[in-house]
Structures are given as structure tokens and as C-alpha cells.
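#lab-general

N.A. 3:47 PM
ok so I finally got the sequence cleaned up, no stray characters, all 153 residues accounted for. can someone with queue access submit it? mine expired

B.Y. 3:52 PM
send it over

N.A. 3:53 PM
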Amino acid sequence: MLRDLILSFKLPRSVVGVRRTGLLGRDSNKKATEKHTNVLGVAHDAAMRGAKWSFEKDADLIHKMCAILAGLAVMMCTHSQSIRKDDMFYGRVDLPFLETARHQSNAHCLALIEHSHEWVVYTLDPRGHPCVALRQRGYDGLLQAAVLFASKL
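B.Y. 4:20 PM
back already:
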């Protein structure tokens, strides 16, 4: 999960594509192997060290961010095959490379607004309008958003 999240943020969207599950597809992995070996190697090394190490000691903020997201994804798994087969985060986290089924209107959700680097925790009212509980920028914003989001799981 950690490796594929890192690759999803660091590789061009033309390589990563858009998916519904936590792991990259075969085509994306093939393109990454052929054209982006350095990024693939760095992501693999981070995954081998583990999310805990990345969160605590990695100098790369994307690795730290992906460690947090991987932790949230694992917290939300309902069975051993959730990461491979189910919609990632069950539609409650919006990331640029995910296209998942809609979530419940009363469930708290987490989203990255890519162009402004803002993390948002929100719910949808019965009419589908967002009610924002938190909106913060950058890595510190993700930390705050992850704590709030995790408390609502």
C-alpha cells in the first residue's frame, strides 16, 4: 500500500491513471518499471522500511504523507482482501488518482484539493452539499485532517 501510494503521488498521472482500489494495476506497474525506475526504487525502499519508519524518520514529506494515508487505509479494511478488491477508503477519501463509489451522506470524508494543497474533512448533507469541518494546507494540514477523520471512523 505504501509503495503504491508514493508512486501515485510522484509519478505522472499518465502512468498512474485513475483507479478504485489501493494498489496500482499491471499496466501502471509496467510503465513505472520501464520508464521510472528511480522513482519505483525509492518507493520500494520506503515500503521495505515500513510506514512507521517513513512517518517517524523519512525526510521526504510525500513518504510521510503516504504513511499516514496507508495507515488510514489499513484501519478501514474490513477483511484481508480489502486493499486488493474493495474501493479504497470505501469512497470516504478523495484523492486525484481515485475514483470510488459515493459514500454515505452523513459519513465524514477526507479530500485533497490538489491545486491548493489543502486537506478537507467534510460531510455531505441530505441534499449533497458539503459541510466542511476542517480545511488546512500542506503536511501539517494532513496531520490535523487525519486525526479528525480517524476519530470519526
